[in-house]
Amino acid sequence: MTAQQGIASRDHGHDVRRNILFLKGNYDAVGGAETLLGSLLDHLDPERFHAMLVMLQRNGFPDSPALLKDPLVVDRHTIMWRGVAAAPLTIPPLLRLIRRKPVDLVNSHDIRSILTAAMLAPVVDLPWVAHLHGFLGAVGSRQLQAFEAIAKLLIRRADAIVCSSEAAAAELRTSGQKNIRVVANGVSLPERVPCEPDRSALRVRLGVRSDAILCGVLTRLHPGKGVAYLLDAIASLRRTGVALHLLVVGDGEERPVLEKQAQSLGLEDAVHFVGFQTDVARHIAAMDILVHPSLRESLPLAILEGMAHGRPVVATAVGDVPKVLAGVGLVVPPADAEALAAAIASLVGDSELRRTMGEQGRRIVESRYSMAVAARALEDIFDEVIENKRNHHSRSGGTAASAEA
Questions:
Q1: Spatial distance between the Cα atoms of 405 and 399, rounded to a whole number of angstroms
Q2: Less packed terminus of the chain by CB within 10 Å, N or C?
Q3: Does residue 18 register a pLDDT over 90?
Q4: Whether residue 135 has pLDDT greater than 90
Q5: Burial, 226: exposed, middle or buried (Cβ in 10 Å; 0-12, 13-18, 19+)?
């Protein structure tokens, strides 16, 4: 029996759950893609969909806590990833998995999974939705730029491409991509905005006084995230006598470089590197201002998380950030430490402005950028792509290659 025949034989009414095969690799640092996928798995409608998560696992790289789910809710599998040259070795175990449990759609979430889905497509002809979380482009390494160029070619085989911003969609269209859908990133809303006890708890451990202003950044530590410019901005403000601290939540290849930069700027006691944290909410609660100084983005989860927790946001004008923060946040040019310092300074001495911006930002997230809203939009795309594929096969009378191969 072919994989496509196995799918076509099932009743696809809404009373039967559809099996979605999510593909994701693990990397040297955990970032927005892992967080978003983990949240999507939590919000997927269990009456309509069943999640099958396949991790393309490379030894020595960490696993994301966001993707460790209850096995009764998410059917998780691991396939070892041995590098690009050995990528075809991922296909036989995937085919065995599909034989055991028919799959209705493949959803890829990074370059590694795009390559795997593209190799799987001609074998089983399953519907494929490629979810792009943003390409680094020129701010990435040459090797990463080469992989991104290959990924852009491969996703032309996908039945739909999902990106999180209109800016990213426009860039994809200029490179000839079609079937692009924009679904804005979403975050889970906390039940309440953090109060003073929440703000104080972590600050005591960090040694930050209650009357000091604590800025925070949530990011993977990579040159493209612009944290070096933020360190320069903090140093500039502290030289003017502002009691300012910076909390850096995240890890990555640039951490040693940034720690050395902080030391050279005399910020050893003012900048707090805490690495990757699973309890992001507790760290946002300690912040007075969330800053996102990235050089290139689509729609960063970090600013949405800050807004959801009622924190004012200062961010660079990249991707759809200006659209999201219009009227509720401060936007500055990328790679401009002076502009970052000026925006932060305008909030430091105005607690009422910080409170107002925080309240307005939370309302925006509630109405437009919750994970519940994003999940429903993605579910509709899954349904549409599955039905389009079925109708195409019904009209053509075609079948896919055998999964027994």
A1: 14
A2: C
A3: yes
A4: no
A5: buried
In tens, the pLDDT along 164-187 reads 999 999 988 988 888 999 999 999
| pLDDT range class, residue 116, cuts 50, 70, 90 | very high
Beta-carbon count within 10 A of 297 CB: 30
For the chain, what is the mean pLDDT?
89
pLDDT tens track for 269-280: 999 999 989 888
pLDDT computed for residue 3 by the predictor? 43
Q: For residue range 49-69, what is the model confidence (pLDDT) as tens digits? A: 999 999 999 887 767 777 878
Rounded distance between C-alpha atoms, residue 66 and residue 43, angstroms: 13
In terms of Cβ atoms closer than 10 Å to its own Cβ (0-12, 13-18, 19+), residue 4 is: buried
CA distances from 242 to 79, 235, 366 (A): 51, 10, 33
What are the residues facing 21 on neighbouring strands?
52, 106
Question: For residue 5, what pLDDT is reported?
Answer: 41
Write down the pLDDT at residue 35: 87
